[in-house]
Design goal:
The chain is α+β, with helices and mostly antiparallel strands. It has four helices and ten strands.
Amino acid sequence: MGEPNDPNKTNNSDSATTTTTASSQPSLKPPPPPPTPPKVSLLQPSQKKTKKPIKAFRVFRSIFRSFPIITPVCKLPTLPGGRLPDTHRARDGPRVTGTLFGYRRGRVSLSVQENPRCMPTLVVELAMQTNVLQKELNSGMVRIALECEKRPEKDKTGLLEEPLWTMYCNGKKSGYGVKRDANEEDLSVMEMLKAVSMGAGVLPLNSKSEGADGELAYIRADFEHIVGSKDSETLYMLSPNGNNGPELTVFFVRI
């Protein structure tokens, strides 16, 4: 007759098997939490008109973003129609903070704030690549005209509330400028530049945006905001030297 089974041996064998199996399994660590978005401490502007874009316009905006950018060949500083802007006339308008920013191979955006510590009152995505704008500014003065159609007299829509403009650079059509709400990346850039009143440089940012290459270039300056009429407003970049005139002028016009 065989020897009786020892229950202690069986239990020890099961325990060893369990221990071996448990030790052979790799320890699973919980995934790291997603990065916390930077806290935005920008202040609300003193007069802010909020209007959410309608759903249909968001569709049109995505379509226009798919259009290729026409690289402008900037020549003489003219407005559409061949008129020369009068940049040397006396001006007396409120000063605002203007920031042009974007990834070098992506579209450049214009942000307008009451001051560097406030939330943007206007963000326009321009039909121009950031590196192209930098080259044009280095070569001379740049005139950007944003045009849209006139509205009926009873329509109270403000000029800077228009959702879409035809864009010209020194008289050459370059595509469409699109107004949009400030997104998380816009606010992050404004937050990082909160202590900068004037200057240019590069910010290290990681983004999945189109044209993102890890470095976001920016140009910030004071602009004089001139309201000619309900159908005409202009932003004049103020030179820090005060004697060479503005390097960049942005015209908003209804025609």
